[in-house]
Structure formats: C-alpha cells, structure tokens
Structures
1.
Amino acid sequence: MSDQPRQTAILQCSFCNRECEHEVHYAGRILAHAKCSACGTVMQQSPNVLRKAYIKDLEHRAATKPLRLVRRILSDPGYLFTGLPKAIRRQPKKFVEEAKELRDPNKHPDA
Amino acid sequence: MKKPRQHTGRTAVVLAAGSGTRLGAGANKVWLPLGGRELATWSFQWLAQTELFDRFVIVVHPNEREDARAILKRHVTVDVDIVDGGKSRHDSETRALEYLAPSIESGDCRLVLIHDGARPLAAPALVRRIVDAAEECGGSLPYLDTAHITGAQPEQRLVRVQTPQVFAAEPLLDAYRRAARDGFEGSDTSMCMEQYRPDIAVKVVKGSAQNLKVTYPQDLVMAEHILAAQSFSLK
C-alpha cells in the first residue's frame, strides 16, 4: 500500500469541512499534496519546503536501506529471490514518479 | 511467529476499522503511508517498545483483514490478533472486548488499553504514564487543556480527551455488556465506563499535543515532520 505515489482516503477538508475522499499524493515518503473530492481544494506544501524535505528524507532512506533490507530478508527469506529482483526493476520508474510529485500541482494539474 | 513476550496481564487494542470504509466511500486513513509505512502500524511500534503488554489486538474492517495481516507482518515486530470491527467505534470496542472475554474472565488479562489507530504518535512515555495511573486507580486517560485557546477560567474549562485510554479489564467488559443490553453507544471508552461503572476511578493524565489525531490532510504533514524531527524514534 505504502509504495503507491497516489492514494485515496477519507479525510476532513479544512476548507469545505466535509469528511470525504481525498486524493493524497506522495513524493517518496513525503506527502506532496492532497485534493478534496468535494470542493477541489488542494492542500500542498510549499514546493521549496517539499523539495528540501524530500531530499533530506531520501538521504535517510538511503542511509537506512541496508538495515531495512536485512530486516526484511530475515523476516521473509523468500523476499531475496522473489520480491527483491522485482523491487530493483521498479526503482527507475519509482524515482521518476517521485520527481513528478515534486512539481507544483497548480502548474501541473495532472500531476 | 514473532518474539514471545513476558506475561504482564495487559492487552493493547488499536481501533482501525475506520468510518470511511463503513460508508463505502473510500479508503481508510489508517492505512495511508506515514514515514514509509502504514499509519496504524506506528502505534504498535510505540506500544511494543514499552514492554508493558503481552497481547496486541487490532480491530479492522472485515474487508481489510488480509491487507492488515500483510502490513502487520511486514512492519510490526509483535504478534497482533486481528478482530473484525463493527458499525461504529463503540461496536468495534465491544467486539474487541468480547474477543478478549475468555482471558479477562480467567483473570489472565487484567488491564486493557484502547487506542485510536488514527493517532500514530502516542509516545512510549505517555503510554507508560497512563498505564501507571490505571494500575493505581482502575482507569486512566490523557487530556489536553483548552484554557489557552478559549481563555476560560479553570472551573469552566473544557478539556480535549485523547487516547490511549486504559481500564481494568473486568469492569470494562462488564460496562460494554451492559451497554449492549441497553443499546447505549458512547463516543469513547471513558463515556461507557462513566455510564455503567462510575465506581471505577479514572485518573486523568496530561496528554501530549504531539499525540495528534489524523483528521485533516495537514495532520499527516505535521505527523511526518514530528517523526522526521525525532529520527522516527519517539521516546
């Protein structure tokens, strides 16, 4: 679930105050913006703040990856042969998707 | 099978059935990503870290049972029992307590903590304070004062009640069984206890502003910042 850059969930909109479906976009582990399905209001982080947070988080992800990978393999040894090769193949596309989410949604409404 | 835990007689229940999926309108916010893993899994991280509990239960929407199992297997270091939720928060609590009823009635489970899965930042120190208070009195819950917002005098002030809330297991089960007979629905655990077991003293413990409930999209951003600022490790 958490690998998907776009997710939907019921949240309360701070503009129209309705509890309704929101499309939530992530750049890696960082929430980039969320759009209310009822009124269309987009809650977003400032692009500069988002980029800085993304880079800092990317550094943290890179630094902790070996340990996370070892934990994952210890808890599920089959992952080394089944999940890991697929995950490696997915990486280029994943980083392109993450980069797209760093764009300002007002300038790129399709993002 | 994960790490076996020492017997403590305390069970932690995390409510994650959500209202959104009950309406059939969309995904449950407790499964949204937060800091690289699903929001609800953080609660187990902090609860397990306290080493106060020997049993963990999550209440989920029946449709999310299999997803929940896979997520918990990947991110949670303790064994978690999965219970199907009901139509409301109160109903979900009742189902969790009925699931625990055999161990409560046998005396194996003395104390039950009930926590909202949408509050991912209930730090171990807060959990310890609440459990200590409940061990002393029979019940305990965290609160936040609103006097600084409303400007009210101390005698008129309102407080915001948070979770986790902890109660002696047997009176808690009794209160929910009586509530079921009467068709009573409380908005949180303490309301049902107040209604049916006012004999159980409840000690209020100062909560934490950090223990936010994810309601608005910006709450997710706030939670991300809090986690990142503390290197994803709350004390």
2.
Amino acid sequence: MLEVVKNLLVLMISSSLVSNVVLSQFLGLCPFLGVSKKVNTAVGMGGAVIFVITIASGVTAVIYRFVLVTFNITYLQTIVFILVIAALVQFVEMFLKKYVPALYQALGVYLPLITTNCAVLGIALTNVQKEYGIGFSIVSGFSTAVGFLIAIVILAGIREKIVYNDIPESFQGMPIVLITAGLMAIAFCGFSGLL
Amino acid sequence: MSDIKKKAEQSSMEVFFNGLVKENPTFVLMLGMCPTLAVTTSAINGLGMGLTTTAVLVLSNAIISLLRHVIPNRVRIPAFIVIVASFVTMVELLLEGFIPSLYSSLGLYIPLIVVNCIILGRAEAFASKNSVIPSIFDGLGMGLGFTVALTVIGAVRELLGAGELFGIPVINKVLAGISGLLGRAEPIEYVPISIFVLAPGAFFVLAALTALQNRIKRKMQEQGKNADKIQSGCNSDCASCSDSGCARRFIDVDAPAGAVGDMQDKNVSP
C-alpha cells in the first residue's frame, strides 16, 4: 500500500514538474503561446485542459485495456484514440452546456481549442507506452495537466509584466514570449534534481 | 469568386513552390510548432520527421481530394482524421520495421503527426477544394517546405549544441585544420553549448527565427509590399491554428449540408 502511494507521488511530481508537458516535451504549445496573455484566461484554459485530459486519459485507458487489448488490435491505437478524444471533447462541451452551465461559462470557450490538442493525444499514448493501468493513467493525465496549468499561469503572469518593458522592435510579440518560455524551461530543468 | 478561379488555374509547379517558399509552413505560416521544437535536436532527426510528415501529407491530400464529393460537410473533420490517422499508422509501422533507429529517436512524435496543424490545415484549405494532381503537389510542396525548415533548425541546434552536422564533428575538424595552419601542437577544441540540444535551446532558436521574420515583415511593409501572409506565431488568439482546422469542433453542426467539394463547384459557377 505504502509502495503504491509512493509510486503515485513520484509519478505526480515527475509528470507535473520534472518532465513538464510544455516546457520539456513541447506538447500543447499552441494554447500555451496563444491563450497566455492574461492570468484569468490562462487559468480558464488550464482548468479546461485538466478537465479534458483527466477524462480523456481515463477513457482511453479503459478502451485500450478492454477493447484494443481484448481484440488484439493495439496497432490501431492512434486512430481510435484521436477519434475518441475529439468526440469526447465535443460531448463534454454539449454536456456542460446543458447540465452545468456555470462550468460551461468558465471553460466553454476553451474546449474547442483542445479538440486536437497534441497534449491530450500525447498523454494517452504515453500512458500506453509506459504500461500504466487505468488508475495510474488517470493520475498521470491529471498531474501532467496540472503541470500545464502551472506553466501557462506563470507565463501569463510574466507576460502581463512584459507589456510595460522596452523590448527591441523585432522581438516584440511572439519572440519575447518564446525567450521567456526558454528561460522558464531552464528553470524547470532544475526540477530534475527532485527525483 | 475570382480568387477561387485563379487558384484552380494555378499550375502544379506554382502550387509546389508556393508551399516550399512563399507559404513555407514553418518559417512563414508558423504551423506545426510542436514537432518543430521537439524533434529538431539534430539535423538527421529533423530530416526524418520532415520526410515522414511529407509522406503522410501527400497521401492524405490525394485521398481527401479524391473523396471530396463524397465526404459530407458536417462530418468532414472526423473523416479527415480517420484518413490521416490511417496513413500515420501505416508510416509508423513501416518505420518501425525498416528504419528502427529513426523510429526510436522520433518516438511519440510519429503518432502525433495526426494532430499536426499542417496536415488538417491543408486538408481543409486545399485538398477538399481542389482536384487530385494540384493537391498532391500542394502536399509535396508544403511537406518539403516543412522538411527544409526542420532540417535547417536541426542543423543549427546540432551545430551549436554538439558541434556536429549530421553526426560529423564539423567544427572540431575545421578548428583542427586552423590549429595545424597556425602550427599549434594541440588543436583548439570546440566546447559545445549543450543547452541548444536541450529543451530551452529549441525556444531560443525559434525566438531568434521569429524575430528575424518580424524584421523581414517590417522591412517589407516599409517598402510597401504585401506582408499579410507572414504571421508571427500565434499572434492573436492562436489564429494560425484556428484558421487551419486544428481548433474545429469534431462534428460541425453549423456547416451547410452537402459534400465538402460541392460547395466549391457552386461558388465557381453561380
């Protein structure tokens, strides 16, 4: 029991901080760069990503275990996963709109942006690659998404301040954001000493 | 309408060079950034990723263009995804079987070609509206443009980060030659800036690239040329992605009925 808890904790730290999904694996860069102008929207996006990735990694793990492995068609995982994820996101959007309007108002705008987000598919495939069970897949998905939230909120905080700085003309806009992300990546390299 | 007609009349070669130079997916349109940053740790990886993506892009463009009068408009995204994912799976299995070294170094990023913005984007913007031959050339041009870009970025990172080019220690060889000319007993050795092959280096190289692009764009505007095509990353609200079909809903309930390709024909002949 203690062993399982320890493994889970290690998994959570390693997937949220040490191998951060954006800063060391480059998954989900588009929303990371696109929706990080204000802290508020960044938190919204991060929340939506946590919501979708947690559900998606659970669902894909179940499908992998009980459909793909059972019928011995694991080579179809890419096709099945991307279709399931894309359909799932739209279903979640419709479900939230009808039954949880408060949550829909907070996250709804961001959901279509996640449909073909490479982070969602990437995590589903990583879970399979690392041979996680269903429970571990959900935890890994959740903590990876938390890592995304941490990264995007930090970047948004920095970007809110950067606006007031005197930046060379050519570096205004995306280049300075990329440099900021690079410096953050250096900082996150430091976490590799944690484990 | 005239614009569409003009597009249809474009020769295959024009379409090809359009993708390779004028609308280069990486340097000009800033599409498909995830693999661009992730796999360009060396020139050979960039080349491998680029060629793999090109193969998928050409095949999926051809099939989508052939099926453009069959695929209903509302479920076009799932249809495109199935076609693209099938080709990606085939290419992945082929690589695993025949080039295992490339397969292991690209790893997770091969199946992730499915969600590369370039592929769905070209399916939406070109293949679903044009006939087969131009679509194949569009795929070839865009794919090779992507390949060139990835190889160049990979070469820069490998050269700075490891002092090598395609695995050959170029810098040390040159330095050894210079030391020989100067008559030094011990050759000068290059100390690699290893951060460039690590994750942060990818961001820095791309930042430098985008800054250069900003500068070119500004120069072009000063000279009164049209620089609208050049985007600088996800400038507004990740516009480059939502335009290219990445951020679409799975089933587009608001889309007009009918097949994807039919819309086009109606436009051309009012």
